[in-house]
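Job type: complex structure
Entries:
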Amino acid sequence: MKVAKFGGSSVASSEQIKKAGSIVAEDTERKFVVVSAPGKQFDTDTKITDRLIELSYVEFNTKEYKSISDKIIERFAKIVHELDISNEILTEISEAIDTAASVETADQQRKTDILKSIGEDSCAKIVSRYLNTIGLNAQYVNPEEAGIIVSNEPGNAQILPDSYKTLYEMREQKGIMVIPGFFGFTTDGKLMTFSRGGSDITGSIVAAGVQADLYENFTDVDSVYVVDPRIIPNPEKVTTLTYKEMRELSYSGFGVFHDEALMPAFQAEIPVCIKNTNNPESAGTMIVSNKNEESRGVVGIASDTGFSNLYVSKYLMNRELGFGRRLLQILEDEGISFEHAPSGIDNMSVIIRDDELTAEKELSVINRIHEELNPDTISIDYGFAMVMVVGEGMMSAVGIAEKSTAAFADANISIEMINQGSSEVSVMFGIRKDKLHKAIKALYNKFFN
Amino acid sequence: MKVAKFGGSSVASSEQIKKAGSIVAEDTERKFVVVSAPGKQFDTDTKITDRLIELSYVEFNTKEYKSISDKIIERFAKIVHELDISNEILTEISEAIDTAASVETADQQRKTDILKSIGEDSCAKIVSRYLNTIGLNAQYVNPEEAGIIVSNEPGNAQILPDSYKTLYEMREQKGIMVIPGFFGFTTDGKLMTFSRGGSDITGSIVAAGVQADLYENFTDVDSVYVVDPRIIPNPEKVTTLTYKEMRELSYSGFGVFHDEALMPAFQAEIPVCIKNTNNPESAGTMIVSNKNEESRGVVGIASDTGFSNLYVSKYLMNRELGFGRRLLQILEDEGISFEHAPSGIDNMSVIIRDDELTAEKELSVINRIHEELNPDTISIDYGFAMVMVVGEGMMSAVGIAEKSTAAFADANISIEMINQGSSEVSVMFGIRKDKLHKAIKALYNKFFN
């Protein structure tokens, strides 16, 4: 039994939905289908979800409202027409939009939540009807029926454990279930959307709930690549990743999808396969809980920019019980998360993502450090990039650190920071941002080429 | 103007004091002499200071008391006799001991402080009189006269800033001043000893106070070595070190002396020279505030054992504001200092010196982490050694990390931890304790041989 989730690009047009349909049709194990809202058909296109969000902020029945809702309906109409399914659904969609938008409410978040869910919901209805036209026994299943019960947090709903029981019972139902992604319902029936990557979350929850043998995540790429293809054209593909490796890779701007979305599947130990709707013959990338010893080594190189280094030095710092803790406390008081905190004997660096800092927070932090910790020096240095060499079980392997550092040396790049020791899955290098592409190339050549 | 400090081995016998005398005599710049108490003459010998401490814990005028005080006096008598100076001083010493030991006091710490200071004090008196016999205009100067004014902390006195003014005025005095190390006086005249390395502290304070051109620290080694001579026989000597380099080297079991003792000299930017009383012709090692660019690179490899790794992992740890801070807070509440805290995405390690941990503290820490942080896993791993590759300005140099990691790889040693990024002066590697000698050898061969 498999759960197949189709992302925005996989349902962006009738042509894409037909591809998804063939994929579902060719394997009877694909019993659960989860869909996103239609995404972009081309670069300058607008996602249905974005139009629905826009609509939630304009006054009902105004000219502006009509203009936006017309565009949404036109988009669906084209799909429905090209798929040759009944027009009825367009009336349903239109009514759903108008009903949601006409409600007078002080709770804008709730309104937006309901409106934006219509993209996925309508898409699931269209897909299930299309599957019927190609001879499959498929039905639309509302998340409430499916048992996707969530916390009362609009835009950031969390799945409640009871959901899995109801979902498991769905195994027994006949035919293919098509479930819209991105939202669930509270115990008292209020619709709530998930956070970013919401359809992935639904797919992952369904896979965990029905105890699927496989969760297939259909995207528009053949696989996960060992390195960002925007930096290295046509890089090697990753055949198999572990959950932990995926998590470390996702952290550092390793696109494809939001790793937390996969948490329910990971926790239920359901293997995940990343596949391409446009090239379903390609094996894709498997994400599993464990892989065999032989295939261990570096699986990928991830990177991200936008880090700053808060540096504090004070003679005899290491004798001052609580110095490090107090420094982190000051950051915490200002609501600033830190990434890493390498320390020397008389000094400590705190690596912070730039988006955690504002000029105001920075000033406040620096003033408090001066007053409360009385350091010898304090500085903030911007423009850091982090590069992560990822691979489970490789960390204690002799030679990985050497190979990595040799790559930097060969490319004449200074390493500003090395963080190894806690994670068994990665080594992190801090370098100047402008050296990032050069560094990635050097590491790719060292480990993969 | 120079300050020459002679350590315990340099005044352990009449023969050694004669060597120290020649050293003082041969350079008229050596105007200030600071002395330790007579140290060990041979491996199984007992230091005068240790006998004095012992004496402070026994009842006055008992058989045991007499036995210990006799041994102290005998030791001094032999020196005095061999140096051919007046016996009067032995009566002085004997009286000083009896006076200090006969006081009825509830304050054992104060009593011990006064008794143990007699070692240095007597030695200074002997040395000044000996210098007179070889024709030098030398005089004993009591630390109170010299202006060494300290805080009221027996065994851990801290110098008060006013001291430096009085010390500076001593520049104008004629002749050679011989000052006992290890103690000073509070503003209300109470004698207080410094902490470990106390005579080095006095020497360093005097050098800073009189604004010496050089602070000479006479020991029994020719120089500082680039690596522990117990691991590598006859290693290369260090010609010049910066203060910062010395500090990092001292931290990790790099013998010679206690780096904090040199703080007053460092802060006054007085150059320090480590020299050998037994081989004063050898150039020794200079410790300076800055050295020229060309001589930059790896200056030494330090190491220490006795570290443990407290490892905590929790999925989505990096989203939990304050997780790291709370972990460090728990350690702080138990009075445990940490050395380093490398962190991954979902995990954090805290490197702790074994002597900070007791079975009880460990249990308490683990219980609190379980209760308060609800981690997925928690473990304590013992038996780590830390290796530091030290050299100012080398850190951002391309290739240092590579050379170091290559040394480990060549020796087939797994690197458990790398900490680079905060200190500009060192990179720290964590390895298993049993690999330490092998690692030091490999690094020595890579950087020096």
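Summary: Chain B has two domains: 2-220, 300-447. The domain at 2-220 of chain B is CATH 3.40.1160.10 (Carbamate kinase).
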